[in-house]
Design a protein that fits this description.
Length: 475
């Protein structure tokens, strides 16, 4: 893999994304799905993946960022990319036209990388955009497989053959929504691709990071800098990113996967169906991540919405890092940094463990520090503490600060075990756990963080009734 020269040449890019299998593969052939808007590219993408990954909606131009994911087609591992629609009809001078231009640029870049281009057309509706896009495909003609979508039950198949006039040797009439003739298309795709360079290897640990926050805080800029790509479209127009865009890179021999999510707005601001699904997809991305970068605009500061986003990650026991972006616009002194950090600590009082890092995603400053802290957080998330060490420490904690007691709320703490990593959780056994004050539970959680090396992550502590001591339990 080529090294990226971002802060001491320690980050390198990979094209692989997460693969929900017990094996890892590299050098996978890339299938790029392309065509004009609203012909069913994202539906076909989801069909080939056998899951709903891309947002689908009747509104033209829903997909903007290229979305790349691994899949199996006929038991063969491949990479599939869904691209934004090739759109000629633009209202010049509007932000939408600027974004359309960026989408087209991304699509053309993807065509150069592709091992196979899956062109999606629509029967009985040959447009100028179709004709113009087909002209652009001429240099890659040996890589193109043409499909005519929305031919469920044989509908419009006769009209579909009109596309043969463009010089295609074969056309597949399919229905991405209903699955018609997808098996024949799959056979053609596999026949087209070269699998001789595919390498099967052992599964390796991947640090999965979700970048979340309000629109226009610099999430896509950071994602692009980390992966050394332009996978995410960057624009001053809030709400540019709609899907979750994945990318990978290597830092200090550790593989990272970045999930660049759509900006999450207050519910009253979410008016489009597409944005509604984007917000839900962004929140759902937390289920597939280990660590969250909460992007905060240093110029605008915090909002209540940031607090709600953090609460979602905190409840899941995820590692959380506050990323103060656009720090290059602030005074570069300790007083300014301390004031910004104090504001965050006041709003997130229960999350004093979460690191705060000042960066400029645009300038590239602070990136190395951010990644070093991320490695520390991930190490803590995956750390397992031996039970004997835990109970020796517990005995010291009980001596240092004895459990409060009253006649009506007497209890004894017996022992503790670690029940999980990533998220990190412990189970405390005690007599009458229901009467243990929350303040004492917080005391024990803080001692776990401080004394056992979990100072940068949330720690979950559950209680369970037991009258048996640890020593007796071991016998």
């Amino acid at each position: 893999m080529k090294e990226l020269y971002i802060e001491e040449n320690e980050i390198s890019q990979t094209r692989e994304n997460s693969f929900d299998t017990s094996k890892e593969y590299s050098n996978l052939p890339l299938i790029v799905i392309a065509g004009r808007p609203n012909v069913g590219k994202s539906t076909l993408f989801n069909r080939l993946l056998h899951k709903r990954r891309a947002i689908t909606d009747p509104t033209p131009g829903v997909t903007r960022d290229p979305i790349e994911e691994k899949a199996f087609i006929n038991d063969k591992p491949v990479c599939i990319m869904d691209t934004g629609g090739f759109k000629l009809d633009r209202q010049i001078g509007t932000m939408e036209s600027v974004l359309d231009e960026l989408v087209v640029e991304k699509t053309l870049e993807a065509l150069k990388r592709a091992d196979c281009i899956l062109l999606v057309l629509e029967a009985e509706n040959i447009t100028g955009e179709d004709e113009e896009f087909i002209k652009l495909l001429r240099p890659y003609w040996n890589k193109v497989i043409a499909t005519v979508n929305k031919c469920e039950g044989g509908k419009d198949e006769t009209a579909a053959w009109d596309f043969m006039n463009f010089g295609f040797s074969e056309i597949f009439c399919i229905s991405a929504e209903h699955g018609d003739h997808i098996s024949e298309l799959s056979d053609a795709l596999i026949k087209k691709l070269d699998f001789s360079k595919v390498i099967e290897g052992a599964e390796e640990s991947i640090i999965r990071v979700a970048i979340i926050g309000k629109p226009n805080t610099g999430k896509s800029t950071l994602s692009n800098r980390l992966t050394n790509t332009q996978a995410s479209i960057v624009s001053d127009y809030a709400g540019t990113t709609r899907d979750v865009v994945e990318g990978e890179f290597i830092y200090k021999d550790k593989k990272f996967q970045i999930l660049d999510t759509a900006g999450i707005r207050r519910k009253s601001k979410v008016s489009e169906n597409v944005e509604y699904y984007s917000v839900n997809r962004a929140i759902k991305s937390l289920d597939n991540a280990d660590i969250v970068f909460l992007m905060i605009d240093a110029q605008e500061g915090l909002t209540e919405q940031d607090k709600k986003l953090c609460a979602l990650a905190h409840k899941r026991g995820m590692g959380i890092i506050f990323v103060l972006n656009k720090w290059d616009t602030q005074d570069q002194d300790k007083k300014t940094a301390k004031k910004a950090e104090d504001n965050i600590r006041i709003m997130f009082g229960h999350m004093s463990y979460a690191p705060i890092i000042e960066i400029s995603a645009l300038q590239g400053t602070g990136i190395k520090h951010l990644l070093n802290i991320t490695l520390e957080v991930y190490e803590q998330l995956t750390r397992k503490t031996d039970t004997s060490v835990l109970n020796t420490a517990l005995n010291d904690w009980l001596i240092a600060f004895a459990p409060p007691a009253s006649r009506s709320a007497q209890f004894k703490i017996r022992y503790i075990v670690q029940t999980n990593t990533n998220p990190v959780s412990f189970l405390l056994f005690a007599t009458r756990p229901e009467v243990i004050p929350q303040s004492y539970i917080s005391y024990l959680q803080n001692r776990i963080r401080k004394d056992l090396g979990y100072d940068k992550i949330p720690v979950m502590l559950e209680l369970k009734a037991s009258r048996q001591k640890w020593e007796k339990r071991e016998c």
